[in-house]
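Can't attach files on this board, so I'm pasting raw text. These are the components:
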Amino acid sequence: MSSSSTPAASHPPLASDVDLLRLDHQVCFSLHAASRAFGGVYRDALKDLGLTYPQYLVMLVLWEHGPQPVKVIGERLRLDSGTLSPLLKRLEVAGLVARERSAEDERSVTVRLTEEGLDLRERALPVPLKILSATGLSVEEVLSLQRLLGRITTSLDQAH
Amino acid sequence: MSSSSTPAASHPPLASDVDLLRLDHQVCFSLHAASRAFGGVYRDALKDLGLTYPQYLVMLVLWEHGPQPVKVIGERLRLDSGTLSPLLKRLEVAGLVARERSAEDERSVTVRLTEEGLDLRERALPVPLKILSATGLSVEEVLSLQRLLGRITTSLDQAH
DNA sequence: CACAACTAAATTGTGCGCAACTCAATGATG
DNA sequence: CATCATTGAGTTGCGCACAATTTAGTTGTG
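---
Top answer:
Structure tokens for the assembled complex are below.
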């Protein structure tokens, strides 16, 4: 928010606005593109399991932390009920999870894995290595990428 | 499986399957989360312009390269007609672009900016700096992130 | 010339992401 | 105790991503 008291503020270009537009284009595009490229590889790797990429994320959370309310899943994945409700319904229809109202708090719905959902974990074990090798990165590079992305996400979330 | 490793531990621990599942979770999640966090900040920055994030990408391409066929836009952004056709229709309704069939090749549709679309560039100039500062990164870090993401995307696209 | 193969857009259908809203249960306040 | 604000899920609506299909125009081959 710059104070522009003058109507036709002549603003001397810094690194040239055009360059910044280009840089911006490339930053947002490269992240966008990488995210979608991951999506494509996950789609292949998860086809056998009958899972989409976000559904796989939910399953990972359930495999790792066990039964938990929708709210907690949403916090872990930063997804709201508008996304999770229909997604969980699909997982339920697929027979992988069960949902039941909590006894203490009738507003809360606890999501738990079914036998089938638990069993799916075995078949999901080869997935991470497939993805890792598809990236062409070393484990160290992946970890540093993670850290960088984490920093960015934190900053962006604060700005938002 | 590999959980019977000896605690001799003169070497760095190799990732167990469980660790790989966790790592995978974190990698895909952090990229997914970062992409969505960017989306949120762009949403704010572009609200005044009446553009969504992908629409902004299309406008950037048009601002930079001028009139071009849908196919070329798709190649630059790695988007297919299933995404671009309705998106371009919305930009057309908004009065920012015009579409016309090419004379030489009747299959091709050339997209060009309207006066209004060209003028919008001025108002878009502040956006990149807003985004850059929201990331909390230096220009150098952004550039190296871009290179890394580019490498990943290339690898992933080849695997796909 | 006729016909098959190919190409560019558009369309259809499914799922995700998110804002805005509804609804029921809970908690807080007077 | 009655009322109001808050909370957790769910629903609706819009836009994007992508696979699969359709349509129309182009190119290649006999």
